Amino acid sequence: MRPIIPDYLAEVLRDVESDTSGEPAGYIPELAAADPERLGAAFAMIDGEVYGAGDIDIEFTIQSISKPFAYALALSDRGFDPV
C-alpha cells in the first residue's frame, strides 16, 4: 500500500505556496541570500522513514529553526526543571 504522507505534504505546500507575504531576514547574511521561491517540507518518522515534498534536495541554512533542536537536546540532557 502506498503511503499517503507524500501526498499530504504536497497538498500542504500547494495550500501555502501562494502566500508571498514577508521577506527574508536581511540582518542574517545567509537568510538574506536565501531564495524565497524555495519551499519544501519533510517528515521523519520514528521508524527512520523520511517523506518529503517540494524543494527537499536543495541545501538551506537552518538559522533559527535550530533553536527547537537545541532546546530538545537540553531537555533530554538536563531535564525540564533546570532548562
Give the key terms.
about 80 residues, alpha+beta, two-stranded antiparallel ribbon, 3 helices, about 35% helix, about 10% strand, flat
Order of helices and strands: HHEEH
Mean pLDDT: 92
The helix fraction, in percent, is 25-40%
By helix and strand content, what is the structural category? alpha+beta
Would you write up a description of this structure?
The chain has helices spanning 5-16, 29-32, 66-78; strands spanning 40-44, 50-54. It is α+β, with helices and mostly antiparallel strands and 83 residues long. It has one domain (5-78). Strands 1-2 form a two-stranded antiparallel sheet. The protein is flat and about 40 Å long. The termini are far apart.
Produce a short descriptive summary.
The chain is an alpha+beta fold and 83 residues long. It has one domain (5-78). It has three helices and two strands; from the N terminus they run ααββα.
